[in-house]
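Cross-check.
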Amino acid sequence: LTLKERPGWLRLYGRYSLYCPFEQSLVGRRIQHFRCSAETTLDFHPEHYLQTAGLAAFYDDQHWFYLQVTYDEGLGRVLRLVVNEQHKTREPLPPVTLPPGPVRLGADLDAPTLIFRYATEGGGWVSLPAELNATLLSDEVGTRHRFTGAFFVLCAQNATIHNVPADFESFTVRKDV
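Predicted model, tokenized:
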């Protein structure tokens, strides 16, 4: 990661998938409240479906929710919502085609419900029609002994030889009242 290559932006170069417990490319902030939200602005232009970047609610490599910008051969640059529970992934919604330019990403936690949202340049927030069960991000889920806590993270993945940077202009996590 670097703050120098594009002043005013955090640049992440993609590494391994969120499934992998090694060599992640992410920056996170621990979730400390039952009602809170996270927002970021992402400028990312993937050229392959194995290049992704975005905002995730993350517990560990087996439990996370990920609002990602990626590439689809038939649609171009898209937004996908991916859910991983004990290495079983699903996409509860079809992909959303994105226009060129930065995209704002947001997540709203009102425990136990997590809702993601996005906004394109010049547009207002659009909440995704998927109410996710955020208890997946708790210490009690799964079979392993766990104690790390949940995080909102900015992340980037790349499984190709061409490393496309993901630039994040901001990262705000706030307690909602």
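The first strand starts at residue 10 and ends at 13. The chain has a mean pLDDT of 92. Passed to J.P. for a second look.
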